[in-house]
Amino acid sequence: MGNSLKHHLENAQKTGVLQLCSKNLTEIPNDLFKMIKVLRTLDLSDNKLVVLPSNIGQFLQLKHLTLSKNRLKELPNEIGNLKKLENVYLNDNNLTCLPSNMSMLKHLRIISLSNNKLTSFPIVLLHLPHIEVVDLSRNKICSIPDESKEFQVIELNLNQNQVSFMSEDIVSWPRVKILRLEENCLTLATIPVSILRDSQVSLLALDGNLFEMKEFHDKEGYEAARAKTLYMEKYDTHKYDYD
């Protein structure tokens, strides 16, 4: 893709934005590393990347990184060096976990990990001070963990997982507004009353769990939730544009 890559790199040198989507890439071209002082946005979605090299950590100016629709099984620890990173999109890969060094991404606001192979909630996300949107939909996560009291998320999407346990720590999440748990394995008994009564959640999506929504209306705490305008939706048209 010689001339095409050269053209993209020339434009990126001026704009700080490089898009190499759907190029059948199996590795990151070496010429990209001539841009480490320039790139603010890098989009490598819809390729065939299996490995993300450790020198991805050299792109110190990067704010927006898109790697959706590849074949990544893991991320290098060096991704934690991208201190200016604000948005990262990793949908439709084969990730099973996240590296601990992602806790260093103090400016990260949005992370999207839909349709990967995560079986547990990535604990590293709980400690990011400016995180706003976390999309973990379409994985195999079984629980929202304890020890999450300081989670700064505003919207958390866990639709289409295997969640059967919700920590009461959700009550302490200081900024949460939207909690999506559709098509999971929750029973009425596993939804803490305190979350309905005392949390900051204003939109709770629970359709498709192990109970009928009309049963949920009789649950203790439901009336208190309605009194504080908690909205349990069945169909929702709101979505963040992650890609």
TrEMBL record:
Cellular component GO terms held in the UniProt record: cytoplasm
Record carries keyword Repeat: yes
InterPro entries from the UniProt entry: Leu-rich_rpt (IPR001611), Leu-rich_rpt_typical-subtyp (IPR003591), LRR_dom_sf (IPR032675), LRR_domain-containing (IPR050216)
Signal peptide limits: none
One Pfam family this sequence matches: LRR_8
Keyword Repeat: yes
Keywords: Leucine-rich repeat, Repeat
Protein name: Leucine-rich repeat-containing protein 57
